[in-house]
Amino acid sequence: MPEPDAGVLARRREIVAAMRAIVPGEGVIDHPDGLRAYEADGLTAYRQPPLVVVLPETTEQVARVLAWCHANRVKVVPRGAGTSLSGGALPLADGVLLGLSKLNRILDIDYADRIAVVQPGVTNLAITRAVEEQGFYYAPDPSSQIACSIGGNVAENAGGVHCLKYGLTTNNVLGVELVTIEGEVLRLGGRGLESAGLDLLGLVVGSEGLLGVVTEVTVRILPRPQTARALLIGFAEIETAGQCVAEVIAAGIIPAGMEMMDRAAIHAAEAFVHAGYPLDVEALLIVELDGPEGECAHLIGEIEAIARSNGAVSIRASASDAERASFWAGRKAAFPAAGRISPDYYCMDGTIPRRRLPDVLRRMGVLSEQYGLRVINVFHAGDGNLHPMILYDANQPGELETAEAFGADILRLCVEVGGVLTGEHGVGVEKRDLMPVMFSPVDLAQQQRVKCAFDPELLLNPGKMFPELHRCAELGRMHVHGGAVPFPELPRF
Ligand SMILES: Cc1cc2nc3c(=O)[nH]c(=O)nc-3n(C[C@H](O)[C@H](O)[C@H](O)COP(=O)(O)OP(=O)(O)OC[C@H]3O[C@@H](n4cnc5c(N)ncnc54)[C@H](O)[C@@H]3O)c2cc1C
């Protein structure tokens, strides 16, 4: 992380007093015991208590905090619920941690337009809870949905089981209110599908708190499908399970969700939640179909046929909602299940072309032997998004570093086979130093120019996403090689 600025550390009392003047009452935490609660996000391997925690309750307070920090050159790390798995909300010793959890109101629900307008601290699941009585729901469903905030979902472009059919956060957010580091309040997008101008909303979704602070989100809500049924399909080989996934998609079927678990994950999950998973298979697919009853029944028949032709050894179709929920229970509890069998685990998040799955899994097995650490695998198989969990013990000297090196090799492998470094957990600090594996220096400089357009002093969440932060003035320079001005035909101002 960037070296803390001694000048800022020395001004701590002044900074805390300024924050108290903007956010009165209990909204400013500066006692070491209180700060400890915020020292890490879901990537608990890295910890750093912040300079001070500020918990505003209004957009106006957010804007004043940011404007003050900008004027006084103090860094700011936005934080939702702190469930990020990539260290996106990891605090800075010389930075304000700006928690959005008190902005937690649902502002408007419009069933006719099928939208909900919510503050950023509202949890993902709370949106569905607010609209379910009327038969609606919010589709993106990260496994952390009971805790993670919609502001954090926007910042990470979060995904979930149902994103295969219904899209990621970016496909379900229509507009945001964004406060810039200067304290200006912008509105990007709106209440409909189209809005005028450049797609700045698309830029902000997935920007990991580096461009501005989201203070309001307008999301699409969808009517609950008439029926949802799930299939639980066991395979004797992971390769044939991967082939089945590829053939289902190739047949033009887009299930509501299609998840895969390997043998180790099946055993860990079954021991934890007793979901009734078969224990004699190498790979398990959970495939959910939703829509009108007849369509679900028809598609279940088609998928069963594809599964059989790929040598499925067991197939169960849910007969009730309770049974469907039990199929999902193990998958949804895969992370805590890993936590039961290992003191620590490190969850990766690479994405690969679906057809490379068997090859990647085989090579991951080889890496597991080389590094001497076990790995268990759950995937959003339909999207090719892998979540290998490397099991380690942080109390054993050197094991964290070995797990990190193993994880980095897995992500390099994902890029090598034509995939990407992250599917849904973001870059944060976790994958920051691997960005050059995926992007050229020119790509990275161009991405940083976008950052500079929003935050020229690099005060918002520095140390995340970019392996090196160049001063913005440096990036703005025109490079003249051998006296030749690039594009001489263009007028210069
Ligand atoms: C058990 C478990 C399961 C998970 N499963 C999934 C999953 O299935 N799919 C998935 O996508 N993720 C998953 N995650 C990761 C995590 O829940 C998501 O990344 C989530 O979107 C983070 O939301 P949060 O509110 O906790 O954000 P935080 O962790 O607080 O912050 C995440 C990032 O967003 C920024 N940020 C937060 N709020 C704002 C805001 N209002 N404005 C600007 N920037 C902001 C922060 O600076 C940080 O960079 C899982 C995590 C856990 C612990």
UniProtKB/TrEMBL annotation:
Residue ranges annotated for the FAD-binding PCMH-type domain, each copy included: 46-224
Keyword DNA-binding: no
Keywords recorded for this protein, A-Z: FAD, Flavoprotein, Oxidoreductase
EC number: 1.1.3.15
SUPFAM superfamilies from the UniProt entry: FAD-binding/transporter-associated domain-like, FAD-linked oxidases, C-terminal domain
Oxidoreductase found in the keyword field: yes
Cofactor list: FAD
MF annotations from Gene Ontology: (S)-2-hydroxy-acid oxidase activity; FAD binding
Name of this chain's protein: Glycolate oxidase
Organism: Sphingomonas kyeonggiensis
